[in-house]
Amino acid sequence: MGDRFAAHFFGASGRRHDECGKFFDLPRDIYLFLGLFAFMVSTATGLLLAKTMNLFIKGKINPLLGAAGVSAVPMVARVVHKVGAEADKKNYLLMYAMGPNVAGVIGTVIAAGIFLTILK
Asked: How far from 3 is each of 7, 8, 9, 27, 32, CA to CA, in Å?
């Protein structure tokens, strides 16, 4: 079962049309794992920033909303809502999570524009 999952995972990343010998390619795998690492660091940083903000402001911010700043729309917002609802059934975080989620998309677009301008 695990082998089938791995084959589907790598096949879905655009390798299904490659030759069999080139199915596992180190440079492409590095980019894949760098992307996963960036996603994890971004989520953890959002959580820690929200917890830090709670130390200095009157109103409290749910730290899960900090994790919603990752620009994976709308999946991250749904995950934040689900995790919040598991902790407390009265939590309805979906619309609140979409705000930082869309802000993450806008930030990604701005960063990409800056990188394209610099690299041109």
From this structure: 6, 9, 10, 21, 18
Closest CA to 98 of 60, 119, 63, 72: 72
100 and 65 Cβ atoms separated by less than 8 Å: yes
Read off the pTM. 0.65
Residue 70 CA to residue 80 CA, distance in Å, equals 11
First to last CA, the chain: 46
| Contact assessment for residue 11 and residue 20, using Cβ atoms and an 8 Å cutoff | no
Better-predicted residue by pLDDT, 20 or 78: 78
b vs e for 68-100, b when ≥16 Cβ sit within 10 Å of the residue's Cβ?
bbbbbeeebbbbbbeebeeeeeebebbebbbeb
In the structure, what pLDDT confidence band is assigned to residue 2 with cuts at 50, 70 and 90? very low
Identify the sign of the CA torsion 77, 83, 89, 91: negative
Banded pLDDT at 110 (limits 50, 70, 90): very high
Show me where the domains of the chain are located.
25-119
